[in-house]
Amino acid sequence: MLSKKCKYAIHALVYLAERYQQGPVHIQDIAESQHIPKKFLEAILLELKNSKILHSKKGKGGGYYLYKSPEEVNLVEIIRLMDGAISLLPCVSYNYYEPCEECRDEKTCGIRDAFSMVRDETLRVLSGSTLAQIVQREKELGKV
Amino acid sequence: MLSKKCKYAIHALVYLAERYQQGPVHIQDIAESQHIPKKFLEAILLELKNSKILHSKKGKGGGYYLYKSPEEVNLVEIIRLMDGAISLLPCVSYNYYEPCEECRDEKTCGIRDAFSMVRDETLRVLSGSTLAQIVQREKELGKV
DNA sequence: TTAAACTCTACTGATTTTGTAGAATTAAAA
DNA sequence: TTTTAATTCTACAAAATCAGTAGAGTTTAA
């Protein structure tokens, strides 16, 4: 399961994607509309800014806005940033690999195959799911 | 990521699958060979027994053994039992469904699609991965 | 100069995870 | 019948992670 932090990040980014190139958006605005605790959201947005997904403008009239285009940001990137590995086992992770403590020998472990396939399919689906796609999908579904 | 508990359960079950229909196996035996803390393993095996995957024999010469056949036990069942939902979001879960607190309207949420697909692919792969298959795979890979 | 916004450090409470202790129960075997 | 070796069960506890808060500092527009 994704953490709340990660779900908050996705919702905030979708909200900002809907307002792409329309100037900075207040944290307060995002927090209220998306039902996210403001102080918690602050930390999340800061992290997204440090990862060059967002930029911010300080001071009066400031706020956060998308730095990357909505087509460039996909769910894989967001999840890895917020929650870490995509895979279900550390021993089949591309970005967060660790040897399994339990497995004595990775080469003869019969369990890894299935989880490698799950990882591949998950990456395939989530990497194709960009902010632009999500916004487009919501328009199709009739969200105002 | 799977919890340690879940990984322990998988390893213990594979170990028992390799000894299917060869009588009860001591917890001690499983714990030592699979590097699992014995007391923790006790709780895990008891849970697997309560779910009718294992049976046990008490007293001297007792132990645990597979009740279901290795062909009947797949990774979906084990993960659901140990860690809960397969899906990454509660709002797309079959067995652990909960409405998303963040989404005001599930029907117009553009995020769920991708996670529904991830869930479907994950279920497809993991439901096809049985204890029998894992044991077979380990034989192929040359595990003694 | 003031007000409104983000920035940053530190902290805290709740929950989950990962175990451990120890007594009770059961059953085989001596 | 007693001993011994195993599972069963209840209760607890340490550690890690998650979710959220407090509050001072910095920046910028008006």
Describe, in plain words, how this protein is organized in 3D.
Two copies of one chain form a homodimer. Chain A is mainly alpha-helical. Chain A has two domains: 4-66, Arc Repressor Mutant, subunit A, CATH 1.10.10; 75-128, no CATH class. Chain A is built from six helices and two strands; from the N terminus they run H-H-H-E-E-H-H-H. In chain A, strands 1-2 form a two-stranded antiparallel sheet. In chain A, a hairpin with a 5-residue loop joins strand 1 (54-57) and strand 2 (63-66). In chain A, helix 1 (4-18) runs antiparallel to helix 4 and helix 1 (4-18) packs across helix 6. Chain A is elongated and about 60 Å long. The two termini of chain A are 28 Å apart. The mean pLDDT of chain A is 96. Chains A and B meet through helix 1, helix 5 and helix 6 of A and helix 1, helix 5 and helix 6 of B. Chain A binds a DNA duplex (30 and 30 nucleotides) through residues 3-5, 24, 26-28, 37, 39-40, 42-43, 45-46, 49, 56-64.
